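Reviewer 2 asked us to include a model.

Predict the structure of this chain.
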Amino acid sequence: MNVASRLPPETAATTASTVPRQHNHRIKGKPPRLALIYIGQPVYFVTLCTLHRQRLLANSGIHETFRHYCERAEDHNIGVGRYVVMPDHIHLFVRGGLDFNLGIWIRGLKRAVGAAVLGGKGKGIWQPGFFDHILRSDESYGEKWNYVRNNPVRAGLVADADEWQFQGEIVVVDRV
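Predicted model (C-alpha cells):
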C-alpha cells in the first residue's frame, strides 16, 4: 500500500505524484528486520547430533579432532566460542566474517569428526542437517552457555559441570 492510498480521496490525487516511491530491496530468504536485530556478524548457537543418537563422541580423540578443526577455523575468520561435546551431540557457539556460510562450515566439521570416529570415512554418523539459532542482540550468550554446560549434569554423566572434560572455549565470541 502506498502513502497516497491511505490519504483522504481529495488529497490522494495530488499527493500521489509528489510522494517518492520507496523501493523495498529485499534479499530472498533474509527477513527484512535482520539488519535491525543483529549488529555485526551474528553469533550462532549450533547443535549437531549423531544418527540414531549413537554415543560416539565423548572421548579424547574426538574432542581433540573437534578442537583442531575449530582452531583452524580462525585462519578463515571464523571463531568458535564455547562448546560441549556430549556422547551423542555437540553444542557450540560460532561467529564468522561477512562471507561466512554456516552450512558449509558445519559440513566440514561433520566430515572431520566423522572421519575420526570411523577411521577415515566420515559418512554415516550424523543426523542430516543441524539445529542453529542466531542469538539476538538482547539474548544472553552467558545464559545459553550456562544451560548448555550443564547438559552433562542433567544427563547424569558428572555431578558438576566443571568435571566434564569435553568442553571448552576456542576464542571469545561473546557479544559483550
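The chain has one domain: 39-169. Residues 102-118 form the longest helix (17 residues). We have added this to the supplementary material.
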